[in-house]
Design a protein that fits this description.
With 153 residues, the chain is of the alpha/beta class. It has five helices and seven strands. 31% of the residues lie in helices and 22% in strands.
Length: 153
């Protein structure tokens, strides 16, 4: 993914805190959900897009691996609370991570993730340590690549 390194947020810089609502309109801040070692933030397109649904299933399947390493996951989508509520109500599986509504795209913009689905690995000091920006035809990188990045933190 060398060609994407210049896209998105810059590595080794601090990221800003944010507060976004869940599907239940409960406010969640980065400060409240960051784990002992950091957090893996996922950004996707519209929640009902086929590629986004595949990414959500990927996150569900691998969430426990990151939880075991004290790296929680949070998913940030450019959707309304009502759309997230509809998604939660129709999902056959529970979500092991919060899905946050960035309806106006402010967090996407602040994190420079408005144009690319991807993952950001942020350490406990709010420093961006790694990023994976994905083309639409790929779901996410190999989980082993992300786990190795977590181990390096």
């Amino acid at each position: 993914m060398r060609e994407t390194m210049e896209l998105g947020p810059q590595l080794n810089l601090a990221v800003s805190n944010f507060s976004l609502p869940t599907h239940k309109d409960e406010q969640v801040s980065l400060e409240n959900i960051i784990g002992k070692r950091g957090i893996l933030l996922a950004f996707i397109g519209g929640i009902w897009q086929q590629s986004s649904v595949r990414r959500i299933f990927w996150l569900q399947r691998h969430a426990y691996k990151f939880t075991m390493l004290e790296i929680p996951i949070a998913l940030i989508v450019h959707e309304s609370i009502a759309t997230l509520y509809g998604f939660h109500m129709s999902s056959p599986l529970s979500m092991p991570f919060p899905i946050l509504a960035d309806e106006k795209g402010y967090v996407h913009q602040a994190y420079q993730m408005g144009r690319h689905p991807g993952l950001l690995l942020i350490d406990k000091n709010y420093i961006l340590r790694e990023k994976w920006l994905m083309p639409n035809e790929r779901v996410f990188p190999e989980v082993e690549d992300i786990l190795q990045a977590v181990q390096r933190m």
